Amino acid sequence: MIKPRTPAGVMELLPAEQMTFQRLLDRIRSTFERFGFAPIETPVFELTDTLLTKSGGETERQVYFVQSTGALAEGKTPELALRFDLTVPLARYVAEHERELAFPFRRYQMQRVYRGERQQRGRFREFYQCDIDIIGKDQLSVRYDAELPAVIHAVFKALEIGSFTIQLNNRKLLRGFFNSLNLSDSEQQALILREIDKLDKRGAEAVMATLTGESFGLPATTVQTIMDFVGFRSTSREQALQQLQSLQGQDAELDEGIAELKLVIEQLNMLGVPESDYALNFSIARGLDYYTGTVYETLLDDHPGIGSICSGGRYEDLAGYYTKSKLPGVGISIGLTRLFYQLREAGLLPPSGSSTQVLLALMDERPESAAYNLRLASILRDAGINTETVFEFGKLAKQFKYADKAGIRFVAVVGDEERADGTVTLKDLQTQEQTQVQESQLVTYLQTAVQA
Amino acid sequence: MIKPRTPAGVMELLPAEQMTFQRLLDRIRSTFERFGFAPIETPVFELTDTLLTKSGGETERQVYFVQSTGALAEGKTPELALRFDLTVPLARYVAEHERELAFPFRRYQMQRVYRGERQQRGRFREFYQCDIDIIGKDQLSVRYDAELPAVIHAVFKALEIGSFTIQLNNRKLLRGFFNSLNLSDSEQQALILREIDKLDKRGAEAVMATLTGESFGLPATTVQTIMDFVGFRSTSREQALQQLQSLQGQDAELDEGIAELKLVIEQLNMLGVPESDYALNFSIARGLDYYTGTVYETLLDDHPGIGSICSGGRYEDLAGYYTKSKLPGVGISIGLTRLFYQLREAGLLPPSGSSTQVLLALMDERPESAAYNLRLASILRDAGINTETVFEFGKLAKQFKYADKAGIRFVAVVGDEERADGTVTLKDLQTQEQTQVQESQLVTYLQTAVQA
After folding, report:
1. What range(s) does the Aminoacyl-transfer RNA synthetases class-II family profile domain occupy (chains A, B) (predicted)?
2. Contact criterion met (CB < 8 Å) for B18 and A36
3. What ipTM describes this predicted complex?
4. CATH class of domain segment(s) B358-451
5. The domain A9-152+326-342 is classified under which CATH number: 3.30.930.10, 3.90.180.10, 3.50.50.60, 3.20.20.450?
């Protein structure tokens, strides 16, 4: 006998939770489609050579390699590896199918990715990413940068997990700001931003001490200017635009970033995103080597500790390793497994009943009772009502207990009396109310009830 | 520069095909839910020890092993392996979560599985399986065996890929038949059935020669009886029931199989499955070691060469390796990747447009043009219409070409004239018709058009 268990670091759900998860996936997907994104799926494994072009260090150490039984026996180097994100597969996909795709290429992709993370509560080795990207050929208007926060907004409205704020920044603005302080070395900028990133954990004093200390050696006034700058959060659209205005004219790159952010904010207004749901946040940097323009993070207002639940930004060139074509893009990613885990921990998951709406109980073992239920089940299913029939006769109390455990809301009981009357006794396990419904009215009754 | 390519044996789709695939997945899923099945998902990898309990030989040789970078460097034996079907993970899942599940446990699972198949056209190393199973605790009424063909029927009606016939047989009936011929050794039965399975390929004469030949040594009359028996296909419900009746009274196990098949056929009638869509076929056996009662295969009437597109059956005990509980079940599986591939080859895929319904073209580079489109896009999206806006200005002809390539049906054009009039010029790329629609009527117009 073998103890049945899953590998460490995976999230396996019971059916009721899986339904909730599925509902989140469905809502994300339909929102992506609402904004004109098309689906793609890529294989779980890529050729090792293809996958590991770009990444060294950390990422490579977390890669899972895949080998067939035969290759393993022969001691070969693994030819395949599991994808660790959806960005590298997207780059490979776009480069491979370049001629067959229509540009700008708007794709969504919702699949699991794999990382050999250190074992730790809340860290996953297998997790869903829900990504969208818009890829241009040679160029891509900055107007697309404004479309993505509108998608983020629509997605989290649809998920109904509480109020949130989309944090906006721009890497050109960041670089320009540092240029204006005569800190134009991009490596130094990256190191300073890494320290800024620790503000929440270490506190302002400790960070300032580091930046004025030996390793950085920045003047205290410069550090104070940086701290004031990255501390900025806008509280209204008007204030955001004013702040951008006030920074203008110090550096060409800074001005470019300002212009882009302004356009994004103006467009968000036209797209109907309320000003309460987004803000400028000049501390957002997101991996200095990849993003080149607008960057996004998204925080739950009442649970900032969860961290960013949707992030992304603008990049210069998607697939330089695979094609000579220049493919600029902008994208975002939702790490749904981690989000689901944290929502569950915080008790924020929307309650979810079963997708099954009615259980037809079995009153006795006579064939005519089962036959009656079969006929009734067909009528309900044809009307679009998800219906389960009981075939294993047992005490009625046990059947109700089953429905309750499975999260099914209605139990329909038809005994001899009901059959003679042409009625159905319907119990609503949510309200504990019991109703006598005419069989001919049952479909309408249930359709109304489940839609309410 | 690295040549972008996928590993051999995977099916990667372009967006338009992916949408068709997604539509098939959606219809299968909603049908499964219509019959009261609940979703589960399991990790792509299982612990090697857990996965490889049962299977030796063929299956084991096709397994993909998974190793993190660290484990690979240390030369360890892989601790993880990719699932090669959804049945072993289901067994592990049910055993692991036994106390938390409600029985009979009705689950559906639609995920990809992995097999190191020999490289060959039409064979896949990564492919979707769409499975449902009903698992009882200690017992499971044979009535559930009749529910599954009703699900198969509803699924393939929903997929709209042509007429089909669900082939029914019963392993008890098969065994009982052989018993009645004094061929009661189950290994010998298996060997005979394996020869019978070759009927289509080798022809009746060759198979009969083998069975009467040295290795089997069966009398010619016995072989003729077997051939007559396995050649039976019912052409109506009445004839199926008559044939079952005529076999009765020769062997206890045969009689049990007959009673079960009769019940299945009677219930299919009550569930509204027309007699034209199922048939008895006494040659269906399906892996003699696993199934114990009813077995199913499904053939497309006009394309029998594709082989069974949905198969399954009744088994005694799901998870004997993981739990002492007796868990009888009945299940079916659709290999969707293979089915999709074959439908595509045969030109049988239902045509599928983009999920995006409207493209809002951009007439010029003035900000007010983009602004107008943004406002219009929000109105359309709020009304549930999947809408894409063009931000990269280019020739109108190019924008139409883009919509055509992406499979988007409607292109909306709003120039100065239209703006002054409060109208939208709408082109239907399906019919090539161009219509002038009042902006206030646009939502209703499009909703009607896309639903039609």
Report:
1. 22-351
2. no
3. 0.94
4. alpha beta
5. 3.30.930.10
